[in-house]
Amino acid sequence: MKVNNTIVISIGQAGNQIAASFWKTICQEHGIDPLTGQTAQGQQPRGNWSAFFSKLGESSSGSFVPRAIMVDLEPAVIDHVKSNSGSLFNPANLISRTEGAGGNFAVGYLGAGREVLPEVMGRLDTEIDKCDNVGGVIVLHATGGGTGSGFGALLIESIKEKHPEIPVLSCAVLPSPQVSSVVTEPYNTVFTLNTLRRSADACLIFDNEALFELAHRKWSIESPTVDDLNLLITEALAGLTASMRFSGFLTVEISLRELLTNLVPQPSLHFLMCAFAPLTPPDRSKFEEMGIEEMIRSLFDNGSVFAACSPMEGRFLSTAVLYRGIMDDKPQADSALAAMREQLPLTYWIPTAFKIGYVEQSGISHRKSMVLLANNTEIARVLDRICANFDKLWQRKAFANWYLNEGMSEEQINSLRASAQELIQSYQVAEESGAKAKVQDSASDRPRSAASASMEDSRSGSMSLRDLVDRRR
Q: Angle at the Cα of 452 (from 450 to 453), degrees rounded to 5?
């Protein structure tokens, strides 16, 4: 069976900083030198290395090259990657320009981004040609800056237009005033949401608001830096991709396509959140190991999720728990996860919404760790926060000229804001329908007259989610 090959595209300052941290981590996990791409004594890398690496040369002394493309409209971060990664990356795949996007979505989407797009798509086609079996594309980007939002949206749309069969997962960092660098972040994020909603197959949200709080509270860092937040994201991404990169006695390779199939019940409901356990400070991880039951409780705690919301107060549409590391307590893990499932506010029209995966290969920092991926209706709270900040700016047309001067119109901007509201409402409707189903299930135990049963069924029992969304609109 062919291994699924995954290509990682990183965009903008945040996307490329995360990518640099991510590639260093998974090189170490596979036994590949993060500066040369080679292995000790010419050995084969650990696991399904071809999922994320291609091999350069046929001899045992050949090097392993990440399936990576890095793009930025200004040179600083790409230059930093070049000077700190040795000969690991293909230099043709490190693409930058000189002007930058100035924190403006419209520049990345309508201006300079259009100029660099052919080169990036050309490099993507080259990487696809190197693959035996393309399993998907992961896009790392932030929605607050101009390149990550504007060019990120443009590239995702272009990939899906040219290669509609390839799954695209957006890993999007949402802005927070705590670590804000661009005053127009709410504009850029709302504009990007339309593309993430319509073109990406799924979007994994990393909310800086929550990440800042986690680093402050769990790692006892007084003023967390971007590097601290990126380290949290790297932990989650390494855990998320472990099932694509390693297989063994207890698990087979899980492709990106398979993962998304289990997590996305309907095309419009594909925004995911995640959590990681144990959230032990990196310098103490090998000295403070959590028990399996404590780890699972931590994973589902509202204060551990990488999004500023409370998942236990929403509805879980779908859930995947990926456990990696030493399997001496697998029966205990199975039992604890089964007990946790009974406590979750699941959505009753998706009865098989809880998946568990096991990977025997430990991560770099933890002997045992877990990643939670959840499609939860509370994501609407995160998006609503962004939209509220957008409205504060747009009501006064603050900084609107930045976008209007680059070719956007007020009509387009209002349409993009309406698209974001439709997304929020879709999740609100899913939450309401899940709650209604529970009420109906409990009510079905009571005797009903034929007339009342008919009336209740016509009102809601036979109504699909699509009907509910249409009626809400």
A: 60
**Beta strand extents in 396-452 (DSSP E only):** none
Name the residue among 382, 116, 391 with its Cα closest to residue 274. Answer: 382
pLDDT tens for residues 442-457? 444 444 333 333 323 3
DSSP 346: B
| Number of Cβ within a 10 Å radius of residue 56 | 13
First to last CA, the chain: 46
3-state DSSP assignment of residue 97: coil
Phi then psi dihedrals of residue 287, to 5 deg: -100, -20
Q: What is the pLDDT of residues 412-450, one digit of tens each?
A: 999 999 999 999 999 999 998 866 555 444 444 444 333
d(CA 142, CA 116): 18
- Cα distances (angstroms) measured from residue 141 to each of 42, 196, 335: 34, 12, 37
Contact predicate 73/48, CB 8 Å: no
Is-contact 107 137, C-beta < 8 A?
no
Active site residue 161: no
| H or E segment and range at residue 439 | helix 410-443
Contact of 133 with 172, CB cutoff 8 Å: no
CA distance 257 to 271: 15
395 neighbors 303 (Cβ within 8 angstroms): no
Say which of 74, 253, 258, 360 is annotated catalytic.
Answer: 258
Cα–Cα distance measured from residue 11 to residue 9, given in angstroms and rounded to the nearest whole number: 7
Region of 200 (left: φ > 0; alpha: ψ -120 to 50; beta: rest) is: beta
Give, in order, the Cα–Cα distances in Å from 153 to each of 106, 112, 122, 140, 391: 10, 13, 17, 11, 21
Task: Check if the beta carbon of residue 208 is closer than 8 Å to that of residue 172.
Answer: no
Angstrom distance (rounded) from CA 105 to CA 276: 31
Q: Quick one: CA dihedral 389, 394, 399, 401, positive or negative? A: positive
